[in-house]
Amino acid sequence: MIALISSASSAAYTKAVKPILFKQKPDAVHERLLYVGSQLQRSQVIRGLVRGAWAYENSAVLSQEVLGLRFRNPIGLSAGFDKNFELPPILKSVGFGFMEGGSLTSQPCKGNPKPWFYRLPKTKSIVVYAGLANQGVAKIISRVKSYHPSTFINFPLNISVAKTNSPATANETDAIADYVDSLLQIQKAAVGDIITLNISCPNAYGGEPFTTPASLDRLLQKVDGVGMQQPVFIKVPADLAWADFDKLLAVAATHQVAGITISNLAKDRGQVKLMDPLPETIKGGLSGKPTWELSNNLIRQTYKKYHQRFVIIGVGGVFSAEDAYLKIKLGATLVELITGMIFEGPQLVGQINQGLVALLKRDGYQSISEAIGTEV
Ligand SMILES: Cc1cc2nc3c(=O)[nH]c(=O)nc-3n(C[C@H](O)[C@H](O)[C@H](O)COP(=O)(O)O)c2cc1C
After folding, report:
1. What is the pLDDT along the chain (376 residues), one digit of tens a residue?
2. Atom 12 of ligand 1 has which residue's CA nearest to it?
3. Domain boundaries, position 123
4. How many domains does the chain have?
5. Is the peptide bond before 263 cis (omega within 30 degrees of 0)?
6. Is 193 within a domain?
7. Is 376 a member of any domain?
8. According to a count of CB atoms within 10 Å of the terminal CB, is the N or C end of the chain lower?
9. For atom 7 of ligand 1, which residue has the closest CA?
């Protein structure tokens, strides 16, 4: 039954809804989706209908215990879609196994001048230039606390923390203090199940200061000192050569870092096979398919070298169950996505989970955890 509803939703999304949405400016569509989603999720009936239509449950095969947290399935929403944590109830109903909200920062931030988003339909990508717009950690914490506590049962909340996009955090000491301020507030409020340090926002003032080994080491020393209860992940850039990337991992391995989220947007347009015109005037990093190979290569090499040391969240260019499955076989324990859902529709999440069960059965696995890293 769910397969029927899902394929009808899929056809309705790609044939009717998407053509209308894709005619409108992406920034306006994103704003409207946030508004409509936050209104709809107030109704328990609507959440139930969404769950019934789209979510796919098969905990015998798909659930995992990771770092002491229960994930009912491995598919999560990646950071950047729900920057202010406005949609957890409806995202859970859609069928995600977890979500990464944010990136949030210590101070509220308006972000870069709009437009923030530019679609590349044939390339299956979005150019993102938001510049860490968010309402700031204090307001976001009170919103997270306002949800019914059952929202985050079987739906771990991953909080993405970045440094405030402002000239005031341009030097390293201030930047570290900015991260630490967010962490202390999160710690005091006891919210969130995972904390992800986003060190790879390509569109922020001062660039990516913590993507050199020495500066990352200094940041992580201070983060260790905070002593977060939750497991800490770092989210890394897509474009680094393995040798440079490995130096960051070697530093992370000496700190209280439980996992690596691989990866953020692709910055280097020279490495991307563009299928659409992309004017020079459009600034920002590329999501979706341009990140696919980059993130897969880094996931494979990270798993090969570090194996159990880090839990890997694989992100970048996941549009189908086969895509998610490959990331898992390359070493990802969990998978996140955004662009796939924007291009294919929200029913994609349930379809991926259902497809994963079929792929695992085909290959003789009883559960998702047996498949992790099998192609490395
Ligand atoms: C609209 C949009 C906004 C994003 N904002 C953030 C962000 O605030 N923090 C972050 O760590 N990554 C951000 N990203 C990157 C995504 O989390 C993800 O790493 C990247 O898009 C690759 O995944 P995808 O191909 O499934 O979209 C953003 C991506 C998109 C499409």
Report:
1. 556 676 777 777 777 777 777 778 888 888 888 989 999 999 999 999 999 999 999 999 999 999 999 999 999 999 999 999 999 999 999 999 999 999 999 999 999 999 999 999 999 999 999 999 999 999 999 999 999 999 999 999 999 999 998 888 888 999 999 999 999 999 999 999 999 999 987 667 767 789 999 999 999 999 999 999 999 999 999 999 999 999 999 999 999 999 999 999 999 998 889 999 999 999 999 999 999 999 999 999 999 999 999 999 999 999 999 999 999 999 999 999 999 999 999 999 999 999 999 999 999 999 999 999 999 9
2. 79
3. 2-371
4. 1
5. yes
6. yes
7. no
8. N
9. 80
H helices of the chain, in order, are 2-12, 18-21, 26-40, 44-54, 59-62, 88-94, 137-146, 172-189, 213-226, 242-253, 292-306, 321-329, 339-344, 348-362
Is 24 a domain residue? yes
Residue nearest to atom 2 of ligand 1 (CA): 80
**pTM value?**
0.96
**CATH at residue 73:** 3.20.20.70
C-alpha 142 to ligand 1 mean position (Å) = 24
